[in-house]
Design brief:
Helix content of chain A: 40-55%
Largest interface: A-B, 47 and 47 residues
Shape of chain A: elongated
Largest sheet of chain A: 4 strands, parallel
CATH class of the largest domain in chain A: Alpha Beta
Number of strands of chain A: 17
Distance between the termini of chain A: 37 Å
Oligomer: homodimer
CATH architecture of the largest domain in chain A: 3-Layer(aba) Sandwich
Strand content of chain A: 15-25%
Chain lengths: 494, 494
């Protein structure tokens, strides 16, 4: 599809308004999204940014852009306390389980990929690991030091926020100012190394028991957490690129510090459009590993968790996420997921019904398919508004079912358009897919059901009503409904 | 299971004999296996070491060892010509496809993992990437330089093989001596940088157009291909570890050079047991990407290749590999794969039959299950002899089928043992698994078939022979055989 220039608008967290999307070097688009810190299983909160930016990735590609999508894996440097103190999250997990930290990182990044595959999240173009880009991070630290925006202290290097803020605005993304931040920062161990509480580590001296460490010009240590995203995004996407995404909880200090690091190192704003997804909440509180109120994705898929009334398939989770706009909050509840499942099943059933519709020789359809297509695109062009798109899809579902019930008619041209775009929006752009187990249309099962109907049909021809009824009743008990139509019997799994 | 010390013998390529396996720090075992260079799809040749060392990994774990299994991903430094010349394989592919090299590496490593999952190859504990360990490689280069076994030349660093060979034997693994090697080395571009033709690069100066490069004390460049395995194995497994595996084509120059690098840097032999799998051949020639005679795994799974008569499921490929000892050659042919499929299906059918067997009150079984278990373990203990193990499994298959045909009897204790160990050897150790599509035992299909038999049973009770025969005949057409037994009818997919 050719790119419809200037149609797409997206909300830029930096300017706090919707802007027309104009890539720096169209048709190329560079997109970086903060990925997981791999020290535990992915939970519902992790599915949110993955699905949100998968929609962005899919829609941009659909529009014809050539997207290089980079999503990192944090396998070193993310300390327990985001403000530079405490143990490295992965090293701590490794110590507790007596494993090499990289075994932990490998295990949980494999599991994360499996979960993403289950959610039908497309794989990013590059998934760089923080531990694999130590040189790039050291070189950026060096540049920041050379430019005078950092200082060495006890084998660590700290970003000089106070000095930076004199020339630039540290806080422009999150809307904070240093004075507020100063007041809100708690006293922390080892902070005496810093000139000021707001300063943050860009290189950390490793304590003797720290396993993950590399030699650097400043001693043996490891990069500060914010450093990896600055170094890896500029390596793979350039010093200024189009889109940087992540959860809104990362705006401060993580993304704010990324901006400061890039400006201090390269003298350039790193990102044209900042995009932030809202949170998944549970009982009104953000779901997070550090908060201990999370439910992992595998538990949703198995139903094996005390807060879950049943198992929920990956596509139910995906649809649940997409029913909310990415900048809105999503509150977890069993009822909301059960409702999402019903909606998803309705959508899938309508998609199957599409192939059963018989077009009529009518000049005008009761449903203006072209207008409907435009409406769907408008929803996506309005900052990827998936809930509005879904509401249009349900308008189409209603119409499809009416045609199926012979209440209204559609002509062949409109039906072909409707089939094409309904599937484009549902499968290609929203990234939903049929679950084999749900629709039960495995090849063998379909053959067996076809055979069953044939035997029943022959029984009826032989006036053997007992056998015919017996087959129908037994299938009904299994949840398979036989409908006799003028074109013969059809089956449906309810 | 507790470790049966000193039972397992394995063939050590270094000593050229079978040795008792005695880990350096039992029950811990460190194992390193050379993984793929990710610039193309995995072909049948790649499946060989993956399956061979998966058997080793599975059996060692079964014996109770705690195995840390490291398999690397080569995403930089592997030049077209193994002797240090030509373009970087991944950079060349990237240039041809106008992509960032890391996009190529990510794409093909994701595809490799998918293929390995399909083959039921367990995931290694750590899958380190060469590009993610540049510092570790530079530090090892520095050590080798410091110890006088390397020299700088035009921004590159070369390993001084001639000097090394005066104190140590370069060629002990491959059985070569330097003089032979000298005679067999062709004249290559840029070799004038070397003091001697047998020297190899441990750090390569990057030409101006080379994208993948890092700053080093010797200039901007990238590590030599052999360096990554030495640096990453010692980082994750220590300077001396238990098992190093790979294809026998890697013995020279790759593994030979790994030994030299480690001895030169650390003064220690890096590996206690070297293990090498033999090749997959096609028309008697090694199947390889560089030879252009390969068939990729996805083509086997789809059957979409002019040399393939049909599609072959991943388990057929796995079983085909395991039918040969890992140190024997495997020659590809359609007939051999078709035979492997038959054998695999027979094995799976016997496994299903196990649950249908009725134990009898006999004191002695016609088949000594304990002896059989010991024989199976002996095969594995004899250098992982999978074809011998498989022949014992077919002895069991024959016995299982005889019990099923009521020709011989088994008592409950023997049956329980047989069930347990048959499944342990087939599923846990050989790593085979049932293919849902093959056995057709998806839940819905099984229910539908059950229902079909019920309707037929009722028809027979009503003396409605026409319906009963109709059901049987229609199922037969679909390849499903109904057998009437004294306990009722059963079905079987042929």
């Amino acid at each position: 599809m050719a790119i419809k220039e200037n149609q797409l608008k997206l909300y830029n967290s930096l300017t706090r308004k919707k802007e027309s999307f104009e890539p720096i070097n169209s048709p190329h688009v560079g997109m970086y999204v903060c990925g997981p810190t791999v020290y535990g299983d992915a939970h519902l909160g992790h599915a949110r940014p993955a699905v949100a930016f998968d929609l962005v990735f899919r829609y941009l590609k659909h529009l014809g852009y050539k997207v290089r999508y980079v999503r990192n894996i944090t396998d070193v440097g993310h300390l327990e306390n985001d403000a530079d103190s405490g143990e490295d999250k992965i090293a701590k997990k490794a110590r507790l389980e007596e494993l090499e930290p990289m075994e932990i990182a490998q295990y949980y990044s494999d599991r994360y990929m499996d979960n993403m595959d289950a959610l039908n999240v497309l794989r990013p173009s590059i998934q760089p690991r923080a531990s694999g880009h130590i040189i790039e991070q050291m070189e950026m630290v060096k540049k920041i030091l050379d430019n005078g925006f950092a200082y060495k202290s006890n084998g660590s290097v700290y970003f000089d926020v106070v000095k930076y803020n004199k020339e630039h605005h540290y806080g422009k993304l999150s809307g904070r100012n240093i004075e507020d931040t100063l007041e809100n920062t708690r006293e922390l161990d080892g902070q005496s190394e810093k000139h000021d509480n707001v300063d943050f580590a860009i290189w950390k001296n490793a304590s003797p028991e720290h396993i993950m460490r590399w030699n650097s010009p400043w001693g043996s240590g490891f990069p500060g957490w914010h450093m990896e995203c600055s170094a890896m995004s500029s390596k793979y996407l350039g010093e200024t690129f189009d889109i940087h995404g992540g959860g809104m909880d990362l705006r401060f200090p993580h993304h704010e510090s990324e901006i400061a690091q890039s400006v201090a190192a390269n003298g350039k704003e790193p990102v044209k459009y900042w995009m932030h997804n809202n949170m998944v909440t549970i009982n009104g509180q953000k779901m997070g590993k550090s908060l201990g109120n999370f439910i992992i994705l595998d538990d949703f898929f198995s139903g094996n968790h005390e807060l879950l009334q049943q198992a929920f398939e990956p596509m139910t989770i995906r649809f649940f996420m997409l029913q909310a706009h990415y900048r809105s909050n999503v509150d977890f509840s069993n009822d909301a997921l059960i409702a999402a499942k019903k909606g998803f099943d309705k959508l899938m059933k309508a998609e199957e019904t599409l192939d059963k519709l018989n077009p009529q020789d009518v000049t005008e359809s009761a449903f203006d398919v072209n207008e409907w297509i435009n409406n769907c695109y408008s929803a996506l062009d309005d900052d990827f508004n998936s809930p509005v798109l879904i509401s249009y899809l349900f308008d189409a579902v209603k119409f499809i079912n009416s045609v199926n019930d012979a209440k209204v008619a559609i002509n062949i041209e409109s039906l072909d358009l409707l089939k094409k775009y309904f599937r484009t929006f549902v499968f290609d752009i929203l990234g939903l897919r049929k679950d084999e187990a749900v629709s039960g249309d495995s090849e063998l099962s379909a053959k067996l059901l076809g055979l069953m109907l044939k035997i029943r049909h022959e029984a009826k021809l032989n006036k053997d009503w007992a056998t015919a009824d017996n087959i129908r009743n037994k299938l009904t008990e299994m949840g398979i409904i036989i409908k006799d139509t003028k074109d013969g019997a059809v089956w449906e799994i309810v």
